[in-house]
């Protein structure tokens, strides 16, 4: 496959890519240890912010990576026959305590669907569901057009 053209996405194109999807990859790090996981999200094009529901079991591998307000990268991508799009958001992931939930939060989190790849080996009542927001410090996108050559 030969790359024909690369382009930076406009804000409208970024909003379109993020609006077409409901899952992406959240990457965190702690010292020299990386952690990346596919998650579901909701995106608000008006504010440019994300809401995320992270589901885990008590004592999960993810917990140490989420202490404080960790810096994260969140990647959403799609691939067509001749076009590849990716959007990368960087910023701090902020926990939303249940006591601070507003009707607006509830509406936004309603757009963050639970993806089919989430499977847990614990009963539902043993799962921890934590809510987070990401107001990106940087939100970038790229489109790559390719031809069919090898």
In percent, how helical is the residue content? 10-25%
CATH superfamily: Electron Transport, Fmn-binding Protein, Chain A
List the helices and strands in order: EHEEEEEHEE
Shape designation: globular
Task: Explain the layout of strands and helices.
Elements (H helix, E strand, L loop, with lengths): L1 E7 L2 H10 L2 E8 L2 E12 L4 E8 L14 E9 L3 E13 L7 H7 L18 E7 L3 E10 L3
Antiparallel strand pairs: 1-8, 2-3, 2-5, 3-4, 4-7, 5-6, 6-7, 6-8
Structural notes for this entry:
It contains two helices and eight strands. The protein has helices spanning 11-20, 103-109, and strands at residues 2-8, 23-30, 33-44, 49-56, 71-79, 83-95, 128-134, 138-147. Strands 2-3-4-7-6-5 form a six-stranded antiparallel barrel. With 150 residues, the protein is mainly beta. It has a single domain (11-81, 88-138), classed as Roll (Pnp Oxidase, Chain A), CATH 2.30.110.10. The longest helix is centred in the N-terminal third of the chain and has 10 residues, at 11-20. A hairpin with a 2-residue loop joins strand 2 (23-30) and strand 3 (33-44). Helices cover 11% and strands 49% of the residues.
Summarize, please.
The chain has about 150 residues and is mainly beta. It is built from 2 helices and 8 strands. The chain has a single domain, classed as Roll (Pnp Oxidase, Chain A), CATH 2.30.110.
Kindly list the characteristics that best describe this protein:
mainly beta; about 150 residues; globular
